[in-house]
Amino acid sequence: MSEHTRTRRPGRRPVDPCLWVFLAYFLMFIVLFKLSPSILGALTLGWYLSVIIEVPARTLSKIKFVPYKLAVVISSIFVFALLAAGVSLLIPIVIDEGKRLFDLVTSSVRDLNLQDMFRNDSEARVEWIVGITDSFLSNLGEQAATLGGDALNWTVQHIPNATTALLIFVITASYFTAVVPLLKANLRRFFPRSGRDKALSFVASFYGDLRHFIGGQVIIALIVGVLMGVGMLIAGIPYALFLGFLAGITNFIPFLGVILAGIPAILVGLTRAGVWGLVKVLIVIIATNQIESWILSPRIQGKRMKLNWFAIIVAIFFCAQFLGIVGVLLAIPILIFFRDFWIQYIQRAFERL
Predict the structure, then answer these.
(1) Are residues 124 and 166 in the same domain?
(2) What are phi and psi of 218, to 5 degrees?
(3) Which of 20, 49, 303, 345 could form a Cys-Cys staple with 173, CB 3.0–4.6 A?
(4) Which domain does 293 fall in, by range?
């Protein structure tokens, strides 16, 4: 009589329920953003700015007799004053330089001596080219006027939503840093008992990586802004300090920030100093970008935030497609979240299957 021995397989461990909780919260955020993009966008930008405000606040709080709450107030006032000054300078500069560029293009085209350029062609062809040129200049003026009118109408129509979003943005940015301890104390309520400790550890680790990234970006943006401003000043480019400020602000957008800051700088250099001004601006931009890429980012961000450049670009375009301008800023935080989430939850869930 033979006996069949059966090997008993160990029971499969269930998947951590917090995996589904995190995904549910993320999907909830996407749905709410689609339903009310202005409100939730303002809340998100306010939170992002609050993390930026926290960087100088932590530094100030290390000074004797400066409590943390006072440091937050001082840091908030400084950051908001800096943003207000930048916006107040941006609008008149864009209008002034846009007008200069339009006048430069118009005068350059009108100064062309078409008779000499096409003296070997027939008279009918010369008249045809002159007619096309005049039509181009006329259409250019009409398009500029139409664009200005459309921009004004859009601004008037969106003033109520913009005002509400601005108030939410300011309140969130000013108040969020102060309520972080309260959120930490009640964070346990957002996760089931099973897997709660791991979820809290994951949130703490992710938020630490996020603060490290944003804090590093603040330092890099400050140095890049100073380098750009000083470089433009040495090159004799007008609005040098503003261009440095703009370079620092847009530096929070990886890879694309240098393009956004470079366009107005190139515009100013071309309209104020011609081709030689354009060359000097390009030298300053390229030199600053190389210093950031090869020296600042590796030393300040280190290996902790090492992310593949292609993944960063894909994340920026993907998030911008779904979340607009807010998605551009959230691309790196979302990428960091899913990197850590994949390691801590997805891979371990695969191992249990």
Answers:
(1) yes
(2) -65, -45
(3) 49
(4) 197-306
Provide the sign of the torsion angle of the four alpha carbons 81, 267, 257, 241, taken in this order: negative
DSSP annotation string for 177-241: HHHHHHHHHHGGGGS-STTHHHHHHHHHHHHHHHHHHHHHHHHHHHHHHHHHHHHHHHHT-TTHH
In order of 52, 211, 212, the CA distances from 304 in angstroms are 19, 12, 9
Q: Is 183 part of any domain?
A: no
217 and 302 inside one domain: yes
Select from 287, 306, 325 the last residue of a domain: 306
Structural domain contains residue 318: no
Quick count: other Cβ atoms within 10 Å of Cβ 48? 21
Name residues whose C-beta falls within 8 Å of residue 70's C-beta, 6 or more positions apart in sequence.
60
H or E element at residue 67: none
pLDDT band at 230 (very low <50, low <70, confident <90, very high): very high
Domain annotation covers residue 352:
no
Indicate whether 104 pLDDT > 80: no
Report yes or no on whether pTM surpasses 0.85: no
- Number of domains the chain contains: 2
State the Cα–Cα distance between residues 302 and 304, nearest whole angstrom: 6
Count of C-beta atoms within a 10 Å radius of residue 117: 11
Residues 99 and 229 both lie in one domain: no
Give the Cα separation of 99 and 105 in Å (integer): 10
Distance of CA 249 to the CA centre of its chain: 8
Does residue 49 have a pLDDT over 60? yes
259 and 209 in a single domain? The answer is yes
> Which of 284, 306, 328 marks a domain boundary?
306
Please state, in angstroms and as integers, the Cα–Cα distance from residue 305 to each residue in 47, 209, 254, 312, 337, following that order. 20, 7, 13, 11, 12
72 and 119: one domain?
yes
Residue bearing the bigger pLDDT, 310 or 107: 310
